[in-house]
Structure formats: C-alpha cells, structure tokens
Amino acid sequence: MSSVRRHSDLMRRASGFRRPRVRTTDRTGIRMLRPFALACVLLMAVVAPALGQWKILYYDKNGQVVGVRKNPTDRKVGTAPAAGPAGESARAAATARIVAGEVIVANAPRGFTGIVRALGFAVLERASLRALAVDVFRLRVPRGLSVPAAIVRLRQRFPGITVDANHLLEASAVERTPELHARRLMGWRSPPPWCGRGVRIGIIDGAVDVRHPALAGRAIEYRAFQGPGHRPGAASHGTAIAAMIVGAAPWGGLLPGAELKAANIFEATDSGGVSANVFGLMKAVDWMVAERVHVLNLSVAGSRNAVLGQILDLARRRGLVMVAAAGNGGAQAPPAYPAAYDFVIAVTAVDVRGAVYRHANRGRYIDFAAPGVGIWTAVPGGGRAQSGTSFAAPYVSVLAALEVAGGRARNVAVVRERLRTGVDDLGAPGRDEVYGWGLVRLPRSCASPHVAG
User: Fold this and answer.
1) Average pLDDT, the chain
2) DSSP run (H or E) holding 120
3) Which CATH superfamily is domain 171-440 in?
C-alpha cells in the first residue's frame, strides 16, 4: 500500500467518512497516461508541454477510458497557428489541435454569407448569441486552402472581422487515485438541504446523468450544445462536476440547495470517443448569460482563440464571473485558455498535503489553489476517484457564487480581492506561479447568500 493510500485511509477513519455504497460495472478507473500533448483541455485528457499536441481520450459505454487516438473518424483533426500574445510558445501555437478545414467568425458585416459563398467557403452553421447580441459563423474552407491561409484571406477581404480556427477542447482529469470526500477535504460538515439556496451556478462541461442518485431532487436544468447531427458524449465528467457542486450530502455536494445550469458541449464520435470545440462553447456561454448565473464554472481548456476571447469578454461585460481549470499540461506547458484570460479566475489543484498536482499547469495566470487530487466523484452507474484541475475549480466557483449572489461582489476583480482574504499561502510569499495566491478556505458551516454561515 502506498504512503498516499495510507494517508487517505487515515483521513477517512479520522473523519468518520464512509464512501457511498454503489454498484458499478467497472472499478478499474481511468488509466494513467504519459502526457505528450498540448492541453486543449476539456475534462478527461492528458496533455504535455513539450510537443504542444493534442491527445483525445476515448470511452466505452460505461464512461471508462479505453484508449487514446489522434484523429476521430467522424471529424478530422488538423493543426493551425493559434492567436497568442508575444512571448507565448510559438511551437504550442503552431500545433494547436483544430477541427480540420473549419474556421469561426464574429463581427461579420451585412451580406457576409453571400460573399463568402462566392469565395468558395461553405456556411456550416450560424448561431445568434442573443444574450450577447452577436452572431457567429462556422465555415468550411475552400478545397485546397489551408486553415491559416483561409484566415488570412478572410481578414483581407473583411477588415474588422474576428476569425480563428475552430479549436478543439478536452477535459482535465487523468488518473485514479485514493478516494477523498469533496466536503471532508475542506472541513465542511454535512449540509442541510437548503445550503446554497438562492445561488445560481453554471457549468460548461460534458453530459450530466441527471438520474444519478447524487443528483436526485436537485434543481438542475440541462441543455446540450452539440453540432447538428451529433450525439452527446459520455456523462462521466459532467456528472462528477455537477455532483461536486449540488450533489446530495452523501456525495459531498458543496451547495446542495443551489440551482445548477448545466451545458454539455461534448459530442460522441463514430469511433466511440468524445470531442468538443470552441463553437459549441460560445453557444453555451450565451445561454449562461441569458440565465444570469452568478458564476460560470469552466472545467475545460484549450489554445488561445481570438473569437472565443471576444465572446467571453462580452460575457464579462454583462456581469458574468467565470472560473476555469488551470489545465493539466504540466509545469512547462503554455497557458491554457480560457483560464489564462485576465478576466477569468484560474484554479490549480493540490493534494491533501498541500502539494501541487503533478500534472497541473504553472504560470502567472494562476489565481488560487483548491483540492483536486483523489476526489470521490459521481459517475454513471456509481462513483470513482478522479484527479485534475477540473475538480479544483468547483470549490472556487462555489465561493465566488456566494460572494456574487450575496451582493458582496459584482465583478471578477472584487471577487478576486475577497477570495484573497481567506487563503493559505502555500508557495513563495504572495502570489506565485504554482499556487497563485494560495489555497482557498471554505466556511465550516453551510453558507448561503441569505443565511449566515
């Protein structure tokens, strides 16, 4: 038995916590993979810093990882330069994984569709983001034209538009580890069912199994944002994040009385895997703005994208506070987006001893740390332990939502300042590139915007 496992067992015995008894058809967990790819992270992927490439995990019908492939059969994957600031890894930008042969566009002028069709582009999809008052387009580039060349051509023909590749996204959970209860990790007592009443939290993630016992009786509205003709992907990751936030007490839900808006942007591939892209993410963000959620949890990541950056900034201007997983690319990985946007709160993961998660990204964009190693989570058919920065983000999302819903913070800057007052500084004094400002601390009793905790 490893020292980590012994430590985990001791913590459970000391706290009196017992893992919920569930039946599951497969207890093998998630196979640990050696990272060799760049993170465009949606919560179930491993990526590594040096090569700046993608790795897509494939799941069986029970939501278990069964393999890794580079090119899903139903959607070809290519590479293209990604927009990025000076100093960002050129190699990472040049090898960002994209949907081959597609670009996305915002700020298009009147008559845009007719003109681009005459130029040889095909309009695959047009989405009217009503809450953000902007239309976005998904185009197929002309035969024989590369995505980078298509971007240049569109910028020359339409000065002022925002155009980029349709970047792929993945999830950031990677391995099976010793099980630890989400609430027990932070010292919270078992909550009353009203804990968090009056709070609205949004998640953009994978599918959610709303019939899971952890989510029975919860206030959840679920929508899918796949492309036309595509089916939702596996529900393992989305169910886990949803249950961490609003799950029933035996499953460690942080705010079981809160209202959850859950958007799925992952779609199933013909080969049995899952994939997601920036276009679906933008549609989901628009829904979150329309629903006026207090905080949006983004346990997803990828390359910097010009169109997505503009859409998220519009959402920020309309009052949306966003919290995102910092990414699982490792210490040398380039910044992961959307966490690396300065108007998004970036969260890294630590274990029970306060050590940073070994696959976590580092960088000046890291804001806070929270538990994210060996979290016992709900998955279709039962539960399992999962690790990654994806599972750290919900802790900060819950704290931020309480601040916003309680009227104590109206924007991301104020939320950051308020969260800083309750952290344990784990690294170098002050903010650092590993832990940010430090480990967030949650109140020991239930917190609600209307009930003192």
Assistant:
1) 80
2) none
3) Peptidase S8/S53 domain (3.40.50.200)
Beta-sheet pairing, 439-440 with 423-424: antiparallel
Instruction: Compute how many other C-beta atoms are within 10 angstroms of the C-beta atom of residue 243.
Output: 30
77-168 CATH choice from 3.40.50, 3.30.70, 3.30.870, 3.80.10: 3.30.70
Mean pLDDT of 144-158: 96
Whether the Cβ atoms of residue 327 and residue 172 lie closer than 8 Å to each other: yes
Q: If 0-12 CB within 10 Å is exposed, 13-18 middle and 19+ buried, where does residue 62 land?
A: middle
From 68-77, 102-111, 298-307, 432-441, the region with the lowest mean pLDDT? 68-77
Amino acid sitting at position 431? R
Chain-centre distance for alpha carbon 444: 26
Q: Where in the chain is the domain with CATH 3.30.70?
A: 77-168
What's the pLDDT at 22? 40
Q: What is the pTM of this model?
A: 0.78
| pLDDT reading at 258 higher than 90 | yes
Which one is predicted more confidently, 371 or 93? 371
Question: From residue 20, how far is each of 23, 252, 444 by CA, in Å?
Answer: 10, 10, 22
Which residues, other chains included, contact 433 with Cβ-Cβ below 8 Å and sequence gap of 6+? 362, 363, 364, 366
Task: Write the single-letter amino acid at 182.
Answer: A
